[in-house]
Amino acid sequence: MMRLLFCTGLLVLAACKAQDAPTPSAAEAPDAPPAGSAADTPAEAPPAAAQAAVAPPSFDCAKAASEAEKLVCGDAELAALDRQLSERYASSSKKDPATERGWIKGRDDCWKEEDARSCVRDAYRTRLVELAINAPDVMVPKAVEFRCTDNSKPFTMVFYNEIDPVAAVMTWGSDQAIVFPQPAGSGSKYGRKGIEYWEHQGEASVDFYGNRLSCKPLP
Question: What is the pLDDT of residues 191-207, one digit of tens each?
Fold first, then answer.
């Protein structure tokens, strides 16, 4: 049975409060600046994106119980991913409450990770891809097989370019991971924390949780 590998973890948010400074008396108050000075110039308005309130996720933020949920409530991208996941799960024909509880626990464990936001983001994207590729009407692309320097276990990539988010499924032996497109100066790169696939000029460099492979696609 294949094991799906993905990261978990979360960030604890902290806030601090500054004390109010004493108000100077009228005698101590500085002279008013002349008209037309910088003090008369209205402060530049913040960008529209900063002014807009974050659209709420699918759950009630007033009842956010975990640090992961609190992070989602204050982040527009994460909140959008949560809404997308809620809609996709609602329309799924293969609802599994046990799997969902396991996923929520994994997301909430992201506080253990150094980069909690990336962990939460990957948790949402991974679950979205799992639901998409298991939908009954999805067209499964042909797997690309590789011959690698360590040929003791077969290595394949399946590229899902027609789903949202775009992703690939990497399989090495009995282990499997969902990876996402990454910026690359040349070639094609996919990855997530601990995993990287980078194809350039017909050769792929693979790092699967510390197992480094050099692979070429089979004809």
Answer: 999 999 999 999 999 99
131 and 160 together in one domain: no
pTM for the predicted model, two decimal places: 0.75
Dmax (CA) for the chain in angstroms is: 86
63 plus 112 within the same structural domain? yes
Average of per-residue pLDDT values in the chain: 82
Domain extent for 129: 55-138
**Residue 43 burial by Cβ neighbours in a 10 Å radius (0-12, 13-18, 19+):** exposed
- Residues 190, 116, single domain; the answer is no
Q: What share of the chain is helix, strand, coil (3-state, %, to 5)?
A: 30, 25, 45
**Residue 119 in tokens:** 């962990």
Measured from the Cβ of residue 117, the count of other Cβ atoms closer than 10 Å reads: 18
